[in-house]
Amino acid sequence: MLVNLSFVCYNTPMERYVAFDIGDKRIGVAISDPFNTYALPSETYFRKNFKTDVCALAELAKSKGATAIICGMPVNFDGSESVQTEKTARFIQALEAETSIPVILEDERFTTKMAHETLISEGMRREKRKNYVDALAAANILDGYLAKINKKGV
């Protein structure tokens, strides 16, 4: 007996998320898996100057096929804004002006601390951690966002 296994293929674009953990010296980059179930640390971008950094990250998001950019927003433990919040907001505003990709803000409290703890538990030496911690923090930011949208069923 033959069974017809024809599949209907819908031409709907897949969502693809890129996350940035924006710091003063480095910016961690993570990308979602094809099914948006988990985040993959991608790379650490070492900052040069404001304009160059904004252009480089906009181009990076485009090259990864991002349909949205998730940016970690640093706030104090109690949720209030800090000096770093203002710096990050300025950078995000410039990023939004540079690209047509929507930018979504996500609370980044404890993401860098969790990244450090993960790398320490894996036995990574302090000198090497600085090359990986920001990308892992970006993955933590993106994981938080993905958990939210997957819970909502968005």
What does this molecule look like?
The chain is an alpha/beta fold. It is built from four helices and five strands, in the order βββαβαβαα. A five-stranded mixed beta sheet has the order 3-2-1-4-5, sandwiched between helices. α2 links the parallel β4 (68-73) and β5 (103-107).
Short recap of the structure:
The protein is an alpha/beta fold and 154 residues long.
> Helix segment count?
4
Number of DSSP-assigned strands: 5
| Proportion in helices | 40-55%
Structural class: alpha/beta
Distance between the termini: 40 Å
Q: In terms of per-residue confidence, which ranges show pLDDT below 50 for 5 or more consecutive residues?
A: 1-12
Give a quick account of the main beta sheet: strands, pairing sense, barrel closure: 5 strands, mixed
What is the rounded Rg? 17 Å
Strand order of the largest sheet: 3-2-1-4-5
Q: How much beta, percentage-wise?
A: 15-25%
Tag the structure with descriptive keywords.
alpha/beta, 5-stranded mixed β-sheet, 4 helices
